[in-house]
Hints:
Elements: H1 2-18, H2 38-56, H3 66-101, H4 104-109, H5 112-129, H6 133-153, E1 157-162, E2 170-175
Antiparallel strand pairs: 1-2
Helix pairs in contact: 2-3, 2-6, 3-5, 5-6
Amino acid sequence: MPAVRRFLDWTARARDAISPPEPVYAHCDIPCGIYDPHEAQIAALTVLRMDQLIGELPMPPTDAKPEDRAAYVSKLARYTTVKEAHSERVKSEIRVIWGDYFTPELAKTYPQVHELTWKVLKQASKTRQGTNLADAQELLKLVQEFAEVFWQSKGAKTKRQPSLQKSGGDLVVPVSA
């Protein structure tokens, strides 16, 4: 029997070497019951901060040295890449909570969650398309509203506390009843 097992293992390794398996990504799908909108809020704060940094980035003059122009383009590209990644992270975090946590029964109790989720997803897409601070602030506001509904559905009261991040803004956190 050990020889058969070794042969099967060798066959699987050879197949994987020729055609590597695709990585699989998931929150959990057990479902584990561990959900928290905190990461979505941090991602929304990051979007806001990147838009702030982009707005503060001084454009080089037309007669700037090539290395100064390159430094500007590099910073702008990095800020934009991070902003877009975190906009997408907001969407992912909210989608997982909405799709996996909000059961049909919970959605009946909190019917606003469907439209709120739709608004968050649309606003996150909008923040990817531009650098308007008002759009980023609206995204944070919507994610905070989602966090309040989420914690309410768990029977928790919430409070807003300063994020203490450079972007400013508050975090919605649960508090003991």
